[in-house]
C-alpha cells in the first residue's frame, strides 16, 4: 500500500505522510461488534499513574476482534475491510454462512468477497485459521496462540509475520519477526498470511498535534527534570547526568536484559532475539 504525501502548504504538511487508505471499503464500523472505551490517562484502578505521558486524544469505539477463531468448519465471506483506531492493522468484517458476523485481523491480500474458514482441513490461503499441527512447514502465519483456546497473542501488529520452522513431538518451532525462535503447542491456532497495512511504520505524523490526537502527551527527558523526579535530573546548567542512563526508578536503560531469569516460559525459547 503506497504512502500519501501532501503539498508543503504549511510547515507541518511539509513533513507529513499518511497511509493511503484506498484498500478500505467502509468508513463506519459494525455497531453490533463495538463497545465503548474509556480513556484511562495511564492510570490504574487505584488512580495511580502506571504509564507516563498518556492522556487526552480523540474518542474511539472498541471493535471486538475475534482472536480465538473458534467457530470451526463454518465458512465466512469477507464483507468489508475497515480501519481500527485501536491497533495498527486493518480489520475485516466477515459474515458466516449461519448469519453471524465477526471481525478478524485483515491479512495482506485479503479481498472483499473472499471465503475464509477456521478448520482442521482447508486451503492454505490468507485469512484461514488452522491448528499448527495442520499447517505445512515454511508457511507464513500470524495471530498465534500461546495457550490452546486462549486466542492469538503473537504477531498481531501491522506487517507482522512469523514462520513455522519445525515440528517436534507436541511442539512446533516458530521464528518470530524479532529473530526469536519459540516452541508453541501444536494444538494452538494460527492464521495464514502476513498482517496487512505494511507501510504503517513508514508514515510520518508531521506535527506534535497528531501525536496528541492519538492520546500521547509530551515525553519529558530525564536530564531536564528535577532531582526529586528523576535520578538523572538536576545539576548546574546543562548536565548529562554523570552516570549511566537509567529509568525514573533506577533501572539501567541501555543494554541490560530485563527478562526475569526464572520466568517459566523461558524453557519454550529455543533461540533468543539477542544472540
Count, helices: 2
Task: Quote the average pLDDT.
Answer: 93
- Indicate the overall shape: globular
The total tally of domains equals 1
Level-1 CATH class name: Mainly Beta
- Indicate the radius of gyration in whole angstroms: 22 Å
Order of helices and strands, N to C? EHEEEEEEEEEEEEEEEHE
Helix content: under 10%
By CATH, the architecture is named Beta Barrel
Low-confidence stretches: none
By helix and strand content, what is the structural category?
mainly beta
Quote the distance from N terminus to C terminus: 33 Å
Protein described:
It is a single chain. This protein has 275 residues and is mainly beta. It has a single domain (3-201), classed as Nucleic acid-binding proteins (OB fold (Dihydrolipoamide Acetyltransferase, E2P), Beta Barrel). 4% of the residues lie in helices and 24% in strands. It contains two helices and 17 strands. A seven-stranded antiparallel beta sheet has the order 9-16-10-13-14-15-17, with no helix packed on it. A four-stranded antiparallel beta sheet has the order 7-6-5-8, with no helix packed on it. Strand 13 (162-168) and strand 14 form a beta hairpin. The two termini are 33 Å apart. The model has no long low-confidence stretch (mean pLDDT 93).
Amino acid at each position: 500500500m503506497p504512502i500519501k504525501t501532501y503539498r508543503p502548504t504549511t510547515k507541518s504538511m511539509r513533513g507529513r505522510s499518511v497511509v493511503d487508505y484506498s484498500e478500505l471499503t467502509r468508513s463506519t464500523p459494525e455497531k453490533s461488534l463495538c463497545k465503548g472505551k474509556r480513556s484511562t490517562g495511564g492510570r490504574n484502578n487505584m488512580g495511580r499513574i502506571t504509564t507516563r505521558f498518556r492522556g487526552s486524544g480523540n474518542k474511539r469505539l472498541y471493535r471486538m476482534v475475534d482472536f480465538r477463531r473458534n467457530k470451526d468448519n463454518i465458512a465466512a465471506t469477507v464483507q468489508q475491510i475497515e480501519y481500527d483506531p485501536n491497533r495498527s492493522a486493518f480489520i475485516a468484517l466477515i459474515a458466516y454462512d449461519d448469519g453471524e458476523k465477526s471481525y478478524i485481523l485483515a491479512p495482506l491480500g485479503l479481498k472483499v468477497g473472499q471465503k475464509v474458514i477456521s478448520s482442521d482441513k482447508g486451503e492454505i490461503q490468507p485469512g484461514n485459521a488452522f491448528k499448527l499441527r495442520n499447517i505445512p512447514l515454511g508457511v507464513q502465519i500470524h495471530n498465534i496462540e500461546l495457550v490452546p483456546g486462549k486466542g492469538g497473542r503473537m504477531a498481531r501488529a501491522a506487517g507482522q509475520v512469523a514462520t513455522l520452522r519445525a515440528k517436534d513431538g507436541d511442539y512446533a518451532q516458530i521464528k518470530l519477526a524479532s529473530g526469536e525462535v519459540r516452541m508453541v503447542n501444536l494444538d494452538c491456532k494460527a492464521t495464514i498470511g502476513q498482517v496487512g497495512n505494511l507501510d504503517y511504520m513508514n508514515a510520518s505524523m508531521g506535527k506534535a498535534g497528531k501525536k496528541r490526537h492519538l492520546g500521547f502527551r509530551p515525553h519529558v527527558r530525564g536530564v531536564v527534570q528535577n532531582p526529586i523526579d528523576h535520578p538523572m535530573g538536576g545539576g548546574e546548567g546543562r548536565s548529562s547526568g554523570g552516570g549511566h542512563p537509567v529509568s525514573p526508578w533506577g533501572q539501567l536503560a541501555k543494554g541490560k536484559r530485563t527478562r526475569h531469569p526464572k520466568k517459566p516460559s523461558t524453557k519454550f525459547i529455543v533461540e533468543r532475539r539477542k544472540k
